[in-house]
Amino acid sequence: MGVFDRLPPMDHLRSEKMCFVQLIIPAESARVAVTYLGELGLLQFKDLNEDKSPFQRIFVNQVKRCAEMSRKLRFFSDQINKASVRSSVRPALEPEIDLEELEVRLGEHEHELLEMNTNSDKLQQTYNELLEFKLVLTKAGGILASSHNHAASAERELDENIYDREVDEGNAYLLEQGVHQGSSGNSGVRFVSGIILKSKALAFERMLFRATRGNMLFNQAPAGEPVTDPISGEEVEKTVFVVFFSGEQAKAKILKICDSFGASCYPVPEEMIKQRQIFNEVSARLSDLEVTLDAGIQHRNKALESVGSQLWRWTIMVKKEKAVYDTLNMLNFDVTKKCLVGEGWCPIFAKSQIKDCLQRATLHSNSQVGIIFHEMDTIESPPTYFRTDKFTNAFQEIVDAYGVARYQEANPAVYSVVTFPFLFAVMFGDWGHGICLLLGALVLILREKKLSSQKLGSFMEMAFGGRYVILLMAIFSIYCGLIYNEFFSVPFHIFGKSAYECRDKSCSDAYTVGLIKVRDAYPFGVDPSWRGSRSELPFLNSLKMKMSILMGVAQMNLGIVLSYFDARFHGNALDIRYQFIPQMIFLNSLFGYLALLILIKWCTGSQADLYHVMIYMFLDPAGDLGENQLFWGQKELQILLLLLALVAVPWMLFPKPFILKKLHKERFQGHTYRFLGTSEMDPDSEPDSARARHDDFNFSEVFVHQMIHSIEFVLGAVSNTASYLRLWALSLAHSELSTVFYEKLLLLAWGYDSFIVKLGGLVVFAFATAFILLMMETLSAFLHALRLHWVEFMNKFYHGDGYKFKPFSFALLADDED
């Protein structure tokens, strides 16, 4: 054990040591002190006013002011986006302003902008109404002109008709009467013109017909192009209509129906001369309004540009100020109402930096009383804080997605940096596909600065955040692809000649018969001569299946070893004696022995059947091994390992609960008691558990918990080992799918003489490789590697029931804004 004590500490394996601190801040320097702490970003405040609502807190008025300013800034941002005004990314240099001055300036800008919007909306509505009026004049004038022509032709027919005048008076059309008698007479025909939505025209006509009992004539003409509605401002399809009627009562009904259907009525004179005059007047007003609207838009855009150049800086300033007052609301006033008392967590290494910040705050606020900063004892479990960089952050996020580590618990992310991309590559091994992934990762890394300042989509943002994970996955995929000797499923003689050649020169079918070994084994990876042979699939299946078991046993052993270091670090002797040791014995007595047999078989070239060996190790331990014996004393070793595995199960189950019960009794009987640490009786490890409270020890609960844990490990040892066979299955599936695409798409198309067929086959092969092998297969292998880490590896030692260290930091506010 002394060897481990002499090893240097691993900074990333354990979370940072934390301390619980208290601050007593004079009221006059509270805001400045919290601002400086936000710039430092290494102190997590505890809310001391949890029982109070947001409206009962001390600085609620300041928070409301900041919220109101945030609303105005969001309004400016929406207006800038709506107007498509490009504001500079870097704000213009202007002198610093305080919050009061900013509040006044924001109010002035908002009032000015609202006034411009109101005027612009009124002018735009007038402009749209005049456009409709112009359209109604054009279309309705055509309808009226056709009505005049129809009336004139009707007169000629009546003059030539042989019938009596009385028949004419009884059967003449309303339109003819209107032409004869004029529109101004009391008994004459009048008309109403306007414009209505095309979708409402049919229902509008029916309603008019029913209301007037058929005593009207409805003419319509489509507008021909989308019209901007004056009220909604949307472009819609409309229809111009002219309704001929007789009588004041009918007119009142028609106008009410027009109003209810949302139709806009415009006065159109009957005489063509007056129509032309009004048309010219409307056109002149439209041109004047266009000039006015353009000038207003330019003035508004200039105002938005001036606001937009400072918008980012103002937004960050308001966010910081609001965050400061939100933090101050977490503090308590002391009894004298002159000091604010705060509590929180900080890393031990940050204590000196926090003290420097508080001293600067005292000086800059001209306070005569210094800020008191000291440590406190607490029974609360500290937060977990790992210092990460842009390379390790993605791996830490993968682990945190499963669960945040307990305080000072072993961090799986340290090992996942290597094991995660490697297990991915075992399933994805193809150095051609690996090069494609590598190029994609290099593009993301080389454009890192540019992409980090842009707004990315959800998929692109995920890929950019994991760019270094993709880089390592690509590098390991190239390595595993060289071992498998696959480049888009095609083998190459990269590291020398194959160990196999034809028996003689007449050997024509070199992939099936006639191959003999003529030189030493291929120096690195799989010999290319295995490709296409009859024994290719059995050979690769055997290789990858055994390799998967070796990797699984190694990683599970690593997880159990980490549980030892965790127990040793926290002083949990019971966990070492009655959890770590029996788990190591059980796992390695069965599956560690299987891994040993695989290695011996590879080294000796034995033909032993390992399935038979493992099955009859349980069914007939004392039976003769025969041809399946790999080494001397194998049968005796198997019996010993089987007995050790059987002993390890009750070793895990029974001693620990009874020892805990005995220690509990000794404590309350006044006997000498030395607390023997364990995770079941550590108050810091499970603060909400009944086992954490020594005065409320429940033996049945402890025993059931230990029984569940033991059964889960025993069954999990079998299922987890089998789960690692997914490495073999997905590697085989990836290889076979790649072979199918190469042979059935590319080679098949290349067998034709047509250039178009060859080009089509190449394009289809490229798309299949990109979308199926490089996207779907990458995602599949990623998810399976994720499962192997979360379930098979981390459940051996990782609790993952902690909570993150979330300091009060202005840098986080800037990241959120980006």
UniProtKB/TrEMBL annotation:
The keyword Transmembrane helix applies. GO terms for molecular function: ATPase binding; proton-transporting ATPase activity, rotational mechanism. InterPro entries: V-ATPase_116kDa_su, V-type_ATPase_116kDa_su_euka. It is a multi-pass membrane protein. It is found in: Membrane. Residues 99-126 form a coiled coil. The chain crosses the membrane at residues 422-446, 467-484, 547-565, 585-602, 637-654, 755-776. Keywords: Coiled coil, Hydrogen ion transport, Ion transport, Membrane, Transmembrane, Transmembrane helix, Transport. GO terms for biological process: vacuolar acidification. GO terms for cellular component: vacuolar proton-transporting V-type ATPase, V0 domain. Belongs to the V-ATPase 116 kDa subunit family. Essential component of the vacuolar proton pump (V-ATPase), a multimeric enzyme that catalyzes the translocation of protons across the membranes. Required for assembly and activity of the V-ATPase. This is V-type proton ATPase subunit a.
